[in-house]
Each structure stands twice: as C-alpha cells, then as structure tokens.
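Tokens in:
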C-alpha cells in the first residue's frame, strides 16, 4: 500500500476534530501482513479422526441477524441483580482462559464486551466478585445490511460477521488466541477504501466514590495515542489495577486518534481503508498465590504484584511483530490440538437454518441430532476457551460477564457448580485443562488448611490435631479468585469430598503417577484427614458427620435443614476416603492416619433405603420427600452414583433405589440440575431417560447462543450436559471400559472417536440400530484393558494390522487383555443381542402373618422369572426363587412383620438367558 500524503491531508481535513489534544496521524503499517486473498475459514481443512472414525463436521452457531443490544439492563430476576437479556441470549462467546469476549456482530455499532477473569470488585455477597472489564464499541454505521450472517465456528474458535452494505461485502472475524494472549479482530471490505470505523473502548461501571465501607470504586481513563488506545484504571475493593490496550493496524486509508480535553475517552478513527486489524490485550495485577487467600485485608491481597502495564504492552508489541496469518495459525494449532480429539456423529446433517430457528423448532418438538451434537461440542469449546494452563479455572459463567456484579459473584461454587465445570474434562479428552483448577487449589490450600483447623476446633474440638496439616484442608460452597470459605450452613463438609473427587479422577483417567504423587494424593490425603474428623460416633457405633447438611435443601418450614449424617456428607466422606486408600496402595503408603481412615470406612453407613424404596437424603427420613423440598434442584443424596461410584452395577438394590429417587425428584429443574440428572440416569444405565433429560435441558434451559440458563446464564449446565453425553457413550467407573453403556435409542446409528476411559484408554465406537458394530481402543499408557459389552467375548479382536489378539474371557460380556503403551485394539463382529423387556406390573398382596403374594403380568418371550429381595439397606438382592414359570410367587417367612423394610424384585429371563431390568414392590415394617 502507498502512503499517499496528499490523500491523507485531504481526508484529515474532513475529520471532525474532537479536541485540542488530537494526536498524530499514523499510516497503515505492514507489520501484521494481512493476506487479502485469505479467508479464515479455508485456512484450516478439518482433519480426519486419528482413529479413522468420521470427519469433524462443521460445527457452527449462526444467525441471520445481529445480536440484539437494546441497551436495557433488566431487573427481572435475582432480586434486582442486573440481567442483560440480550447479552445473555444473543452474543457469541470467545475466550483464551485469561480473557473472554462476547461478540454481537452488529453492523451499526459493533459491541465486543470483554471480561478478564481476575478483575473483581465487591461482589453481591461478602467475598467479592467478577466484573466486566471493558466494552469495545466499533462504530461502523452500516444501517441497511443485506445477506447478513454471523457465526461462531467451533471447529476454529473464530467468530465471524459478514453482510453486504451499499454494494460492498464486509467481513469481520474475531478470535482470542491463547498462545499469543491477544484478541485479534479483522475487518475487511470487498472494495478498496470502503472500510471506515471508529474504535471506542469504554470502561463500564465507573464509580469514583464509594459511600459504603467497602471502598468499592472503579476509576480509569481511556487514552488514545497514535495507533493504540490504552484503557487503564483501578478498582478499590481489592486494589486491582487493570489495563487494556487496543492497537489498530489499517491497510489502505488512514487513521487518527483523539482524546477529549481531559485526555480521556480516547478513540481511533479509521477512514477509507481496505481492511484493518485490531489487537487487544488485557491484564491486571492479580497473581494467583497463597497470599491472595490468606491475606485478610482486601486492600493488601495484591501488594507487591507488578502492575499490568509492561505485560500488556509486551503482548501487543509481540503480536504486532507477527503477521496476521501467524497469529491465526498459532491460534488454530493451539485450539485444534484439543478440539479435534473427539468426534461424535449421531447421524445428523448440517442444517440450513440458523441456530436460533433450529433451537426454536427443537423446542416445538422437531428433533434434530445436529443440535444435540453441537451442544456437546460447544461444551468442549467453552471449556477450552475458559480454562487453560496458567489461567484461573472456569467460573460460574466460564469467563464471560457483562455485569458490574456478576450473579453469584461469578465465583467457584463448591456445592456442585465448579465440580460440574470439570466433569467433562477427562472423559472428553481435555485432561490438561484441569490444571487451572489444580493450580487454583494449590494456591488456596494454605488457607484451606486453616479453615479445616478452624472448622474442627469449632465442631469437634476433642479430636483437633495440633500438628501442621493434621486437620487437612477443607472448602465450603462460596469461593472466588480472591477468597474461599469453610463449609457449613446450607452445605455440609461433603463439599470438600465433592471437590477432591476431581483429583482422584485426574489420576484415574491419566494414570500419571507423578501427578498422583505431587498433586492428587496430597489432595486426597488432606481431605481424608479433614473428613475423618468431621464425624462423631452415634449410639450404634456409626460415624456420622455432625453438623451435616444436604446442599441448600430446606425443611418444610423453609429454613435450611441441618442435621447429622445426611447422605451427601456420608457419601462424599466415603468416596474420598475410599479413593485415598486406593491411591495410597498405588504409591505404597501406609501409616496410622490411613489405618484410622480405613477403620472408619465400615462405620459410615452412607447409603440408606427408605419406605418409598428411595435412597434417603436424611437418616431420619422415612418416605421420599418427608423432610426436604420434594423436587429440589440439588439431588445430593445421589452423589455416590455420580460423580461418585459407590452405587454401581455391583450394588443393584442401590441402583434401583437411586432410580426411585431420580423419578421422584423429577425431570424438570434448573439448567445445571438437569445436567446432574443426565449423568445420574446414565449411571443407572437408562440411556433413554438420560436422553429425555438432555432433551429437556436443550428445550427448556438453553438460550439462543446455546448457553445454559439457570436462569440467569450459568455455564455449569453446558459442561455437565457435555459430560453426560460422554457418559451415555462411554463409561469406565466400574473397573472396565463400557462403550455405549447408556446409549439412547434416539441415537439409533452413529459413531464417536476420542473419548477417554479410566486407565487412559482412548475409545472409538460405531453402532447401527442400537447395536455396536466396532470398537477401537488406543492404550495411551499401557496396562490391563477390560472391556464390557454384551457378547463381546464372541467378537473378533485384532491389532491395527488385522492380526487376531488373544484375550481372556471373564464372562460372555467381559474380556480383558494386557496392553503396552501405543497398542491399538480393534473389535468387530460383535454378535447381536436382544434386550428382554421387564414385566409392566408387579403387585404385592398381604396374605397372612407368614406370607405375601407377588403377582405380575406375563411377558412375551419369557423363559421364566426370578424373584429377589433386598432387606433394609442391603446393596444387593438375595435370590428368592429361580426359574419361576408362573406369574406369581408366594413368599413365606417366619414373620412378615419381622423381616424389616423389604424390596421385592421380579425379573424376566429370556430364551437367550438374558435378564431384564427388575420390577419392584416394597413392604415397609416400621
Ligand atoms: C448453588 C445452587 C444455585 C446456584 C448457585 C450458583 O448454590 O444451588 O441454584 O446454581 O449455586
């Protein structure tokens, strides 16, 4: 391009001069070389799966109209906390773990709202909260766009806007690069010199004085100089200093920067360019460290941390040295290494209608498999965009907030929400992204130790330890980048075990012994020490958490219900301590602390079955719903089913009881609550019911940009549902790999590749009419590989070259092989099997003191029936009668009233020897 000074002078004269402090004219520079013939979408050809299963489809959210931006902040929900409906529903999120941005794709004034995960003020609650960093406005003044499209490509993590205005085609693309830590915005016109705009970053929610005691002000200035606008200031509550720089590079035309008389409200005007690039870097003086959590004086938490100016300047300078294509390639390479690992295909075709219409049709009952795939991949996209090595973990809104005070502080809520954010991290092949939570934990650990000591001193002083780390660590529900809290109130100490589960999973999925020794084991051990002290013996010699609370559940009177030994706490204590003992064995640890924890395990009595046949939430509950809110969103009595594993296929009576609880709690709830239920239904192997919940989440709690809504927007539901889809397709928590463990009949034929099973096996599968046709297992670290699928022992098992592999048959449906790192196992020709239907009715009739009669409806194709019973809290059934040919059975006992609460279960055995699910009836003796 030429620097035509004549032309420049002419146009400069045409500018409206904003102030006397107008700064110099900068010509378009060629440092960031934009190749005009290159559109981003054709830079990267989607790859084929490493395992050969399918190609990555184009996954795109797209719309034929700009995001609405009515500028109105609604106060409809959350007791007056601002709620920007348009931002939540229409804008498209991008992010690199440090910075999030919401792109509106507008042609009049583009709005790109920016969030930095570390910028916080005084939150709506006591511990401070996330707040919006900046609004970037680009005044373009195209008021009659045609052929409009805006989209978010999940394949490339790039947001696009394109339209035609006055005969000129305009294109815009935005991406947030992790490797270069900048946001890159490209604007382009199809005709020379037709791109003009005004760049106008704004600091939101400025407040120079705070009249409360909190010092909750936000000051700042926006100053333009040459081709850079610097937005900087300070927030009083935590003394956070923030800075953002916006650098404009124009190709053709010219630009000029302006400030107002106070050297503020800086803008850059670009005129008559062909194209332009805007580079954005943001930062604060936040540094994740123990001090952030241990320092009680909010104003001092960041003392001594370098101010962000140098870092932000360096980021902009080094990005400027790269060409646009280098920046783009860096971004794509980085992003693709994660995103491309998993492919799924439920037989969908790429729709020709915009995403909002697709969703609207879906809500009206028009099923669409693409939307269901898209939502799954979106969850993976959102996690890659909000949780990276060196960044804070994904918070309640991921990394996206347009608010002054983000709902629920935009924090890390530990009674379900933050854990749910990380439920998909291992099984959808994104294990490295957990590092951000692990780093956060390492940083808060010192404070968490103090809180544990404080908690035990208050609640169980008799066994308080005086040695350092003797009481382990703990964490309560509320936590942010700046503070954590201790458990108590509406959520019991089990919140800690809920959290440490993630560390066990990190090891179990990766089998990385270094991680185990350095991070996971210390986390489990510290939690074990704490949890071993939150219990007290009761009169029967059981060890019960005291105090104890099932998250946010209220007694009938409306108050949070605090008790002793509720299921949530007992289960999470059990889960952590069981995982801890397994981990200790792996690394050869043995000491008195572990012995004590082992001795406690048998006294926790975590699972109780009630008169409705349900898993009880409280020990003092008889029938389901006796105490708490009947359809409460939390379903904490089932944490031992998911994410825990104590309730599993080897405890069939508990599995059945869990189903009762699930049914009673209902299939309708808030966003994340539905996501928890999806995972729970997969674990009881009811794929169709899990699917119903997934469907409900999409149909009732999904915004037009496919964000999950509680309401308001919360990202946990996106992540939880993504994990749930993975659990339908692959399970591995029962000691073996179980592909298609809860496959819904709706996804009749399909395939996936790249999901991960515990033991670090990467698994692919194809299926047809509900029947698996092939599996491929890639052993990433070696070790024993056990695979479960009906009739798998009769399948053909080969290596990649087609050479038959020998395997051990554990039973018809379970085989095992030993593998070396890098081995790939192919399985095909799995003989079909047909499921046997259970009986639809089962009636129990009292006969006399010594007998009851069970009768049921005949099932076609039944060879015979089996009758079982489970008494009290028994995890398993006893076989009462086998090979029953009739459709009734008289059960006899010494005294019926003396046998205790009993579940009777009748199953159907088909001619192929396969057994149906059970039908249940109960007798309750008080
Ligand atoms: C838990 C939930 C609420 C909400 C909040 C962020 O406290 O019970 O429903 O999701 O987290």
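Residues out:
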């Amino acid at each position: 391009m030429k620097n035509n000074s004549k032309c420049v002078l002419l146009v400069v004269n045409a500018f409206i001069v904003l102030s006397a402090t107008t700064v110099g004219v900068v010509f378009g520079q060629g440092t960031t070389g934009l190749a005009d013939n290159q559109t981003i979408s054709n830079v990267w050809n989607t790859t084929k799966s490493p395992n050969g299963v399918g190609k990555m489809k184009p996954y795109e959210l797209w719309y034929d109209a700009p995001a609405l931006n009515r500028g109105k902040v609604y106060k409809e929900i959350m007791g007056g906390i601002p709620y920007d409906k348009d931002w939540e529903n229409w804008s498209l999120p991008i992010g690199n773990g440090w910075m999030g941005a919401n792109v509106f794709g507008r042609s009049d004034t583009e709005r790109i709202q920016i969030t930095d995960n570390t910028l916080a003020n005084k939150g709506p609650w006591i511990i401070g909260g996330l707040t919006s960093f900046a609004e970037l406005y680009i005044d373009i003044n195209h008021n009659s766009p045609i052929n409009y499209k805006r989209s978010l490509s999940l394949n490339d993590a790039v947001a696009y806007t394109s339209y035609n205005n006055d005969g000129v085609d305009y294109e815009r693309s935005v991406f947030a690069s992790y490797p270069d830590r900048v946001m890159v915005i490209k604007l382009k016109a199809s005709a020379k010199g037709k791109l003009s705009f005004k760049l106008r970053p704004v600091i939101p929610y400025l407040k120079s004085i705070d009249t409360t005691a909190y010092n909750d002000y936000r000051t700042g200035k926006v100053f333009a100089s040459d081709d850079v606008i610097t937005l900087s200031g300070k927030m009083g509550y935590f003394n956070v200093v923030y800075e953002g720089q916006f650098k404009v590079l124009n190709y053709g035309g010219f630009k000029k920067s302006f400030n107002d008389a106070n050297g503020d409200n800086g803008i850059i005007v670009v005129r008559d360019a062909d194209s332009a690039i805007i580079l954005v870097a943001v930062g604060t003086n936040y540094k994740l460290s123990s001090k952030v959590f241990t320092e009680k004086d909010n104003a001092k938490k960041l003392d001594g941390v370098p101010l962000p100016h140098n870092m932000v300047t360096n980021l902009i300078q080094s990005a400027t040295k790269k060409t646009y294509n280098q920046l783009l390639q860096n971004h794509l390479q980085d992003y693709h290494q994660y995103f491309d690992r998993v492919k799924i295909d439920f037989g969908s075709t790429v729709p020709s209608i915009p995403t909002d219409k697709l969703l609207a049709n879906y809500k009206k009952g028009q099923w669409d498999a693409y939307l269901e795939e898209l939502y799954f991949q979106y969850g993976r996209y959102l996690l890659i965009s909000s949780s990276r090595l060196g960044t804070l973990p994904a918070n309640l809104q991921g990394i996206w907030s347009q608010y002054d005070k983000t709902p629920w502080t935009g924090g890390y809520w530990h009674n379900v929400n933050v854990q749910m954010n990380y439920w998909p991290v291992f099984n959808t092949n994104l294990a490295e992204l957990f590092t951000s939570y692990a780093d956060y934990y390492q940083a808060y650990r010192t404070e968490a130790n103090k809180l544990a000591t404080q908690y035990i001193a208050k609640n169980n002083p008799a066994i308080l330890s005086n040695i350092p780390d003797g009481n382990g660590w703990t964490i309560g529900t509320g936590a942010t980048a700046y503070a954590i809290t201790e458990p108590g109130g509406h959520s019991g100490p089990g919140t800690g075990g809920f959290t440490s589960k993630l560390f066990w999973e990190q090891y179990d999925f990766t089998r990385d012994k270094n991680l185990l020794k350095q991070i996971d084991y210390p986390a489990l051990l510290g939690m074990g020490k704490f949890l071993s002290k939150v219990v007290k013996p009761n009169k029967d010699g059981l060890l019960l958490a005291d105090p104890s609370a099932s998250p946010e559940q209220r007694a009938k009177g409306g108050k949070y219900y605090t008790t002793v030994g509720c299921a949530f706490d007992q289960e999470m204590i059990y889960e952590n301590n069981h995982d801890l003992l397994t981990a200790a064995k792996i690394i050869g640890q043995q000491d008195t602390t572990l012995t004590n924890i082992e001795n406690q395990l048998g006294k926790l009595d975590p699972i109780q079955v009630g008169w409705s046949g349900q898993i009880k939430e409280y020990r003092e509950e008889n029938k389901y719903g006796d105490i708490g809110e009947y359809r409460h969103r939390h379903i904490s009595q089932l944490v031992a089913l998911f994410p825990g594993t104590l309730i599993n296929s080897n405890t069939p009576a508990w599995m059945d009881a869990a189903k009762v609880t699930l049914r009673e709690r209902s299939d309708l709830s808030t966003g994340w609550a539905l996501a928890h239920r999806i995972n729970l239904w997969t674990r009881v192997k009811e794929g169709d019911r899990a699917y119903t919940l997934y469907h409900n989440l999409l149909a009732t709690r999904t915004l037009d940009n496919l964000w999950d809504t509680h309401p308001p927007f919360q990202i946990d539901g996106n992540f939880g549902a993504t994990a749930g889809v993975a659990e339908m397709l692959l399970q591995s928590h029962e000691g073996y790999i179980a592909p298609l463990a809860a496959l819904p009949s709706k996804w009749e034929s399909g395939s996936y590749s790249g999901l991960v099973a515990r033991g670090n096996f990467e698994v692919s599968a194809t299926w047809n009419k509900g029947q698996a046709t092939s599996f491929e297992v890639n052993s990433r670290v070696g070790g024993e590989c056990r695979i479960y699928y009906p009739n798998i022992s009769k399948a053909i098992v080969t290596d990649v070259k087609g050479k038959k592999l020998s395997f051990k048959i554990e039973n018809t449906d379970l085989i095992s092989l030993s593998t070396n790192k890098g081995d790939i196992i192919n399985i095909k020709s799995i003989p079909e099997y047909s499921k046997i239907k259970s009986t639809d009715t089962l009636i129990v009739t009292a006969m006399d003191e010594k007998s009851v009669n069970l009768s049921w409806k005949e099932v076609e194709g039944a060879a015979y029936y089996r009758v079982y019973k489970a008494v009290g809290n028994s995890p398993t059934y006893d076989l009462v009668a086998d090979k029953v040919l009739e459709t009734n059975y008289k059960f006899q006992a010494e005294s019926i009233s003396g046998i205790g609460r009993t579940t009777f279960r009748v199953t159907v055995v088909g001619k192929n020897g396969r057994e149906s699910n059970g039908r249940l009836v109960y007798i309750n003796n008080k």
